[in-house]
Task: structure prediction
Amino acid sequence: MTDPLTIAGRTFESRLILGTGGAASHTDIAESITASGTELVTVALRRVNPEAEGTVLDLLEKLGVDILPNTAGCFTAEQAVRTARLAREAFETNWIKLEVIGDENSLLPDQVELLEAAETLIGEGFVVLPYTNDDPILARHLEEAGCAAIMPLAAPIGTGLGVRNPHNLAMICDQARVPVICDAGIGTASDASQAMELGCDAIMLATAVTRAEKPALMAHAMKLAVEAGHAARNAGRIPRRHLAHASTTFEGMAEL
Ligand SMILES: CC(=O)[C@@H](O)[C@H](O)COP(=O)(O)O
Result:
């Protein structure tokens, strides 16, 4: 029943993107990916050696999922651009999940450096998917710069706090003409559903699965949650009311 997701002309049946950061083992990663139904997994260039054998890359290849390289660990536009160029060579893809982190405590994006890096990379022919704050104005600037999707956070990376600012996230979704992928801060299945119900086109998450007590089971729950949230959004929810509204009218009811 779910319609496919299209990003920059590429179509995905699954609206869930996974990261592998924090996973306890390759077995956990493999079981979680299978249970989630994801087709796209993000990998930090700075954490893997594409030349080495027996890495997570071999595993992803075996599982038949596509790799989305990211610029995790970059704190300036210059570092992120350099990392993206290396990733393009190493992974033979011009897709990049662009992360430019502002500081180590919050791991929040540096908006100024992010926009600068996005503009440079788009100019070099990259398909840029930027991890950004839940700021509708910045989201608009990133879209106008030519980003293929916008990836606003639900909450800071690894916090599992869920959607902190549903109003902003809804505004970003309403105005965007490119896919909106809620990225980071998802803690459990209801958070993923909520983000989808607010209008997000997809969810990107790592910690909620990799650090769950049963990662594969949580990955399965996330799959269902993303599908449920997307279906509910498309179904058109009832308006919220302050007063009760009888589901059956009293009209024509027999007198007691
Ligand atoms: C921007 C970033 O690094 C996120 O994609 C992260 O990988 C996922 O965040 P969570 O671990 O909070 O899901």
